[in-house]
Write a structure and sequence with these properties.
The protein has 215 residues and is α+β, with helices and mostly antiparallel strands. It is built from four helices and eleven strands, in the order E-H-H-E-E-E-E-E-E-E-E-E-E-H-H.
């Protein structure tokens, strides 16, 4: 079942003893700021534990002969919502054939004489680097995308099984704004434990799949 912002608000108000119907002091306008802060924190925490949240594949990005860098601001550019790339594929720009998977460099690489393929890619300094090519080539990127900010009570929270930790964080931030520090800290610590369990569950699932398909 999808988790909405309204679900989080209702549970957060319950934890703070506020009314879920009249919202005596935890107004939607106030909570919208706190839920987005909680959303960003939860996403950072789970990514730090190795959990991917929103993976996308970019459209084709053309790199002219001799080019070797894809940046956030200067063409050629990667998607604006990209946090980090997972995988790159390449093909010829003219008369394109099948996409070919590129290998990520382990220790970076030095520029070399231009070849007809990129072969390698590296991610550093917020930039994707590829070896120079003697022909125009396209790449596409599989990447971790930034979660879109939550805007309304109907917005869907895209972190799975996160109702409890999100509500605890929102309640914690709200209580801290009223100087109720002790209970706020208790809720925050409980939320972090919940998030750690979500990450642990994800890792266990990946291990189970690995054992099944790659014995």
């Amino acid at each position: 079942m999808s988790i909405t912002v309204q679900n989080v608000y209702d549970l957060a108000r319950t934890k703070c003893g506020d009314s879920t119907s009249s919202a005596e002091w935890m107004t939607d306008a106030m909570l919208l700021i706190f839920i987005n802060e909680a959303y960003r924190f939860s996403a950072r925490f789970l990514r730090s534990e190795g959990m991917g949240l929103l993976r996308k594949i970019s459209a084709s990005i053309s790199i002219t002969a001799g080019g070797g860098a894809v940046t956030r601001a200067v063409a050629p550019v990667y998607p604006t919502d990209m946090i980090r790339p997972y995988e790159l594929q390449e093909r010829l720009t003219t008369g394109p054939g099948a996409w070919q998977r590129m290998n990520e460099a382990v220790e970076g690489f030095f520029p070399e004489t231009a070849a007809t393929t990129f072969d390698l890619w590296d991610w550093r300094d917020d930039t994707i680097y590829v070896k120079p090519s003697s022909v125009n080539r396209d790449i596409r990127i599989s990447y971790e995308a930034e979660l879109t900010a939550l805007a309304t009570t109907a917005s869907v929270v895209l972190i799975p099984d996160s109702l409890d930790p999100m509500a605890k964080l929102v309640a914690s931030y709200a209580l801290r704004s009223r100087d109720e520090v002790a209970y706020a800290k208790e809720l925050e610590e409980s939320a972090i434990r919940d998030l750690a369990l979500i990450a642990k569950s994800e890792k266990a699932l990946k291990l189970a799949k690995g054992g099944r398909w790659n014995p």
